[in-house]
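Researcher: I'd like a candidate sequence for this fold, 179 residues long. If you have to choose between options at a position, lean toward the conservative one.
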């Protein structure tokens, strides 16, 4: 057995550093549409390379202004970190999910999936993770609300899980109509 550092250990350390950078400075870039808002949410993260303390995150979520009872609301979320990448990240090397808590005329939760960095992220530039989508069937009339929930970030096989610290505000709403 060798006591030298293995290449796998080096990749794990690098991945942990990238995850720390990505999860430490989440901020969102999305144009608010009908039923959308940008909200500030504090997250506490755990896992290899996770930043310590509560991390402020800006989340913008879009939802249709209205859907009929029994219809489906298509939600979109795009996330961009404010921390610079510590190394060049290949396209689609960062992925993630965001839980969305339903309220008002809806209950339960859904998960927005499909987040990734579509392009190569050069070292020293902000990491953009876009393309998060979720669909919610709405069966009761009234205003359905959507609030950010737990988040997961995956970089080079390392996963960091983040939970809301306190209560997340509503990020989007949809009016569920009867006709």
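Model: Candidate sequence:
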């Amino acid at each position: 057995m060798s006591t030298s550092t293995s290449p796998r250990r080096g990749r794990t350390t690098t991945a942990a550093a990238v995850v720390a950078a990505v999860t430490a400075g989440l901020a969102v870039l999305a144009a608010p549409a009908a039923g959308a808002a940008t909200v500030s949410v504090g997250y506490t993260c755990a896992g290899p390379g996770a930043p310590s303390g509560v991390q402020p995150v800006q989340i913008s979520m879009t939802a249709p202004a209205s859907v009929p009872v029994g219809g489906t609301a298509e939600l979109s979320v795009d996330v961009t970190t404010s921390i610079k990448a510590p190394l060049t990240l290949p396209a689609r090397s960062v992925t993630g999910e965001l839980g969305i808590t339903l309220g008002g005329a809806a209950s339960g939760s859904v998960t927005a999936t499909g987040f990734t960095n579509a392009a190569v992220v050069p070292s020293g530039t902000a990491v953009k993770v876009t393309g998060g989508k979720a669909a919610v069937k709405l069966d009761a009339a009234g205003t359905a609300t959507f609030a950010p929930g737990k988040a997961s970030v995956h970089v080079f096989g390392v996963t960091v899980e983040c939970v809301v610290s306190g209560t997340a505000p509503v990020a989007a709403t949809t009016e569920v109509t009867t006709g």
